[in-house]
Each structure stands twice: as C-alpha cells, then as structure tokens.
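Entry for nicotinamide-adenine-dinucleotide complex. Fields follow.
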Amino acid sequence: MSDAKLAGAPDPSDFFRLDGKVAFVGGAGSVGPGWGNGKATAALLARRGAKVFCTDISADAVQETVDIIASEGGTAQAFVMDATSSDSVQTAVKTCVEAFGGIDITVNNVGGSVPGGVVEMAEDVWDRQVALNLNSAYLGCKYTIPHILQRGGGAIVNLSSIVAIRMGEGRVHSAYTATKSAVIALSRSIAIQHAAQGLRCNTVIPGLLHTPLVEARLVAQLGAADAEALIQKRAKQIPMKQAGTGWDVANAILYLVSKEAGHVTGTELIVDGGLAAAMPG
Ligand SMILES: NC(=O)c1ccc[n+]([C@@H]2O[C@H](COP(=O)([O-])OP(=O)(O)OC[C@H]3O[C@@H](n4cnc5c(N)ncnc54)[C@H](O)[C@@H]3O)[C@@H](O)[C@H]2O)c1
C-alpha cells in the first residue's frame, strides 16, 4: 500500500500502549490464588507501560500483585485502601498523586454479591452491598476525576455484572443486581458530564467467570463438591461453553482505557461468551 493510503492510519506497534500513563486500580488483589479481575487488570496495564497504583483492603493480596508486576519489570505501588471509606480513598488518591505525579486511568473493580431477595435480605446486608458495589465506584470516581481532568482527560472503567442486565430465575441477588445496575447508570452519567473534557467513562459487564472470588464464595456457601457441580452447570449455560477468566475482563478494560477506544464513552462492554445474547433452549 502506498504511503498516501497509510497516512493517518494507526501505528500497530503502538497499539494499546499506556506508556507515561498512571492507573489507579481499586481491588487490585485477588481473594485467592490465581488471577481475579483486579489482579489481571493491574498486571496487564503495567505490561502495557502504565505505572499502576494498586489498592486493596488486603495488604497481602495487593503486595502479591505488585511483586508480580515488579518481577516483570513494571512499575507499581501497593496501598491498603478500603474502597467503601471516603477517608481511605482520599488518602490513597493523594498518595498515588504524590508517588506518580497524577492519574490518567481509574479502574473501580471492588465488588461482590450476597444472595437473597429483598424480603429475606436484612437491611444491614443491603446497606453493605450498596457500600461495596456502588459507593466504592462513586468514591473511586469522585476523588480521581479532578486529577484526570488536571491531566487534560483520561479514562475510567467501572465493573458491573451480567446480573445487572439479566435476571437469573434460580439464585436471586437483589442488592447485587440493583447496585451493579446503578454502576452502569453512574458510568453513563459521568461519561456525559465530562465528555467534552476528554474524560471517558465506561462499564465492563462480566458474565459468568471462573475467578478465585467465585471459587472461594461458592465453596464457602455450598461446600466443595456442590460448588464444583455448580461451576460445571454455569459453564454449560454459556454459549461458548466455558466461563470467562480474569484475563478476559482485563483485556476488555485495557481496550476501554486505551487511546484505541478514544471515541468510546458512556457505554458497556459485555464479556460473557454470548450469554446475554442467548435465549434459553
Ligand atoms: N468473578 C465473577 O464471576 C464476576 C462476575 C461479574 C462481575 N464481577 C465483578 O468483578 C469485580 C471483582 O472481580 P473478581 O471476582 O475477579 O474479584 P478479584 O479477584 O478482582 O478480587 C477483588 C478484590 O477486591 C478486594 N476488596 C474487597 N473488598 C474491598 C474493599 N472494601 N476495598 C478494597 N478492596 C476490596 C479483595 O480483597 C480482592 O482482592 C467485582 O466488581 C465483581 O462484582 C465478577
């Protein structure tokens, strides 16, 4: 192809590079051995050249992520943060800016589900679900957005879940569904408010994943044998016949925070092996 035809075309060697960018990742550890969404995302953003400020409520989990990044030659710093606490998030953001000079990318990954419909769910459980799934995203956005705007724009990704858009008939998770649905609306609201300032905000909607968090939660709730049976049953429901991984989610997040997604804001990327598009049998 002639040079004229290639003029303005992207340089493939530069695809999905994040050199010079600072990423603030909430929930960058993993609740068990292996790769959860947050740990895989932190490692992937570092592999693409970002300096990653890794936060988590678990000191051990976040240190493990940072150690992996360092062993791969990347740059990362660990910080113990409770994503549901305003003071804690503000201190983390301040420390990140002092350490790395600013923030370009925010990933709000903290979240988790408790089963139950509204009638059987205790009010304090409901409140904790709102704090964990919605307030964590609100606080992560609230305190990083001013810094992203100071850099002339950047990108935020908030984590939702397929239960926000598809209601399972079996196990009901009313608070998780409501809060993860609100996360989508929150992302859209932020996206539109700040679109003209170069700040993009999107949501990743994972489907049924096989991550350490799922394994640990299911084993705790059901016991190892029943958990394994449910894991197999979940995989069969997925049109692609296998659960996604933390890396599938991390790849989607990398796209959304990259310059290649420069015209993408206020939307959702569903990572679910076709589940949301399928009609039961
Ligand atoms: N795993 C799935 O199947 C699945 C499916 C849909 C959506 N999601 C969403 O993905 C995100 C998490 O992904 P994952 O399941 O791979 O987990 P993960 O392995 O990324 O672990 C989440 C991390 O968050 C940390 N954490 C928990 N509470 C915290 C708090 N208050 N403050 C700071 N850190 C805290 C944990 O210590 C853990 O390291 C959640 O938002 C979850 O709702 C997961």
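NOTE: The first strand starts at residue 22 and ends at 26.
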